[in-house]
Design goal:
heterodimer, A: alpha/beta, 13 helices, elongated, B: alpha/beta, 16 helices, flat
Chain lengths: 286, 378
């Protein structure tokens, strides 16, 4: 049992269900799988857990070419072959060519660490299956040196996924699961508050209204997310835009200022401009 | 939903270690995290949970349900104006009012999201006079957490993630990812043996490893979209799907047809009459390793499929059935995605007919359908 419970941090607002899922995973020492829209703070969560519980952090970012084995260790056979041809003494000990992976590093940590396996869905479809045993038992075998590596403390494993590939059932069964849904306006206010404390109420209100209005525009290719909203507010503050400039009435006639932070796609900007144009025409006709 | 024994054991273990505390809401969150591993299943879980807890919730109410009079009275006094208070006195005072309220509490068997008995009578009903809590019964239970919890799953926020509903703007992204899974196969580095031997020999026997990126087994797709007519309802979905698919495939050719495939199709809908491409040219140009995907509701008169001259737009020398047969002969891997709800397929003869022509390879345009269809294409 861990003595501490995760309650969110000064810079991260966690909803009740998220806290529950994290605490269950921490208590039972099972991996937790996090899904959700891009920009809702999936990766950030692992850092916040580490910060909140005061644990060291290991990150393993997955790419399409990442193999499960690389998280455990790599045997650099090519280097050894080359050394053998050059007559290097190192060649006699195979352990010299075993390169430790992130999972191994996390297993050897003195205190219970947090291990982030980021964007697991980017990897090959078999990737999660290859890690089943390691995540279950928290141990693996190094064939080259005939050595069993066992976790001294079962790490808190946070796995994020963008839903690009379906994960195998056997893998899912071993995890807790949480889907971060897009925060509602109230949660969003809290989130902004931890990032920009003391933000003028009027600016916050107008910004949020404009933001949710942009999100509600049908047919956007990429809806702006929390991280984009935070960037945008930062820009608004830096440029010292008055809240009146974001007022809803104006907003119908013009694109919100500094929209580049919210809309990341020229088709979206174009769509927005067209809507604004239509709207302007309608109002002028009346 | 198929939670496994492992997951149940995990849940029990978590309950035993006291992660969840003692509220239904906590239990809801915990059981969801432990048992449901797919957000498309959340809605189903919510429904089951609500159904399961409906009765239990009543039992809770009889345990906790007594509304503390003092509290209620205080609240009411806070909320009411002098005038209203006088009105209540006229009704027989607070005690009487409370009694009536409690009676209604007992009457109410169901959950309260629809409790219109408690709202709407604002002007005359003694309860309406309170006018600050539309869900009447909640007056007394503000403090107990399970009431709020019922709300959580009754909200059914994950409804539009359910994989059985039709594709819309919200879940098109997930559908896209399914397509992408289909498009991308294998990415790894391989040892280039020939080049390694060659380079090692040139290197006077010193090993020189050469790697090549594994060749992408890119999937080639012919996409045929029904446009106009009965498809107008579905045009938006199809366009989204189409524009999404276009960026995902390297080898993707798309064609439009109207209602059914005949001797020609077109690529640009604005110039559909000017620039037509003969279907035979398509079958000759694109090899049989292409996979054929039709998107269409297949809802039309059966004549349009089986008779020469059946087309509503032009005179076709040969019936559509012949043309689809030719296409299927050329492209053995083919599916038909149908945006019409699956339960209606049986009632539309043309859908039945198309399905037969397609050897039953028709799938609904839902995430599930797309998934099944793609599996079939492999």
């Amino acid at each position: 049992m861990t003595d501490k419970k995760f309650k969110g941090t000064n810079s991260y607002i966690a909803t009740d269900d998220l806290k529950m899922a994290v605490n269950a995973a921490v208590t039972l020492e099972r991996p937790i799988l996090i899904k959700g829209e891009p920009g809702t703070g999936k990766t950030q969560l692992a850092f916040e857990i580490a910060a909140a519980l005061g644990r060291p952090m290991y990150e393993w970012h997955i790419k399409s070419t990442t193999k499960a084995q690389q998280g455990l260790y790599d045997y650099d056979a090519v280097a050894r072959l080359r050394d053998s041809q050059l007559g290097d003494d190192r060649v006699h000990d195979i352990a010299n060519y075993i390169v430790r992976g992130k999972i191994w590093e996390a297993f050897e940590s003195d205190v219970q660490p947090v291990l982030l396996i980021d964007e697991i869905d980017k990897a090959d479809i078999e990737f999660p299956n290859d890690l089943l045993q390691e995540l279950d038992r928290m141990e693996f075998y190094v064939y080259e040196t005939k050595q069993l590596v066992k976790a001294s403390h079962r790490p808190i494993i946070v796995i994020t996924s963008n839903n690009e590939k379906e994960l195998p059932d056997a893998f899912l069964r071993r995890c807790f699961f949480h889907y971060i849904k897009f925060p509602d306006q109230k949660t969003m206010e809290q989130i902004i508050d931890v990032h920009y404390p003391g933000l003028k109420k009027s600016l916050l209100k107008e910004a949020l209204e404009a933001f949710y209005k942009v999100r509600d525009v049908p047919g956007l290719k990429k809806k702006p997310s929390t991280s984009e909203l935070l960037d945008w507010i930062k820009l608004l503050l830096a440029e010292d835009i008055p809240p009146e400039a974001l007022r809803a009435e104006d907003n119908r006639k013009a694109i919100p200022p500094l929209h580049g932070a919210l809309l990341k796609n020229e088709q979206d900007v174009h769509l927005f401009e067209q809507l604004v144009f239509l709207d302007r025409r309608n109002t002028s006709r009346q | 939903m198929k939670p496994s024994i492992t997951e149940l054991l995990t849940l029990l273990e978590a309950l035993k270690s006291g992660v969840a505390g003692h509220s239904v809401e906590d239990f809801y969150y915990l059981s969801r995290a432990a048992l449901v591993k797919d957000e498309t299943q959340f809605d189903r879980f919510d429904k089951i949970f609500a159904a399961h807890f409906e009765g239990i919730e009543d039992a809770f109410r009889s345990l906790v349900g007594e509304v503390p009079d003092d509290w209620l009275q205080k609240q009411a006094e806070l909320m009411l104006s002098e005038e209203e208070r006088a009105q209540i006195e006229a009704m027989g005072g607070f005690d009487k009012l409370m009694e009536a309220l409690r009676e209604r509490l007992e009457d109410q068997q169901e959950r309260h999201e629809g409790g219109n008995k408690w709202i709407g009578t604002a002007g005359t009903s003694p309860f309406g006079a309170h006018g600050y809590n539309p869900e009447g019964v909640r007056i007394g239970q503000q403090g107990s957490r399970h009431r709020r919890a019922v709300k959580v799953w009754d909200k059914r926020e994950y409804r539009n993630l359910d994989d059985k509903i039709e594709l819309g703007t919200r879940n098109i992204k997930i559908a896209l990812r399914k397509l992408r899974k289909f498009a991308r196969e294998g990415a790894a580095d391989q040892l280039d043996l020939d080049d390694t031997i060659d380079k090692t020999a040139r290197n006077a026997g010193l090993l020189d490893i050469r790697m090549v990126p594994e060749r992408h087994n890119a999937v080639k797709v012919l996409l045929c979209l029904d446009i106009g007519g009965s498809m107008d309802d579905h045009v938006r979905i199809c366009e989204e799907m189409f524009s999404a698919a276009r960026t995902e495939f390297k080898h993707l050719e798309y064609f439009y047809f109207h209602n059914f495939v005949y001797e020609s199709m077109w690529k640009d809908n604005r110039r559909r009459h000017a620039e037509r491409i003969p279907t035979s040219e398509i079958t000759h140009k694109y090899g049989s390793d292409y996979k054929l995907v039709f998107v269409g509701d297949a809802t039309m008169s059966p004549y349009e499929i089986v008779y020469a001259g059946g087309s509503v737009e032009h005179w076709n020398e040969e019936p559509g059935a012949v043309w689809i047969k030719r296409l299927l002969d050329t492209y053995p891997k083919a599916i038909w995605l149908n945006p019409e709800p699956e339960q209606r397929w049986g009632y539309t003869p043309s859908i039945k007919l198309t399905r037969e022509l397609m050897d039953d390879r028709m799938y609904p345009l839902t995430i599930r359908g797309l998934d099944d269809g793609i599996k079939r294409l492999h």
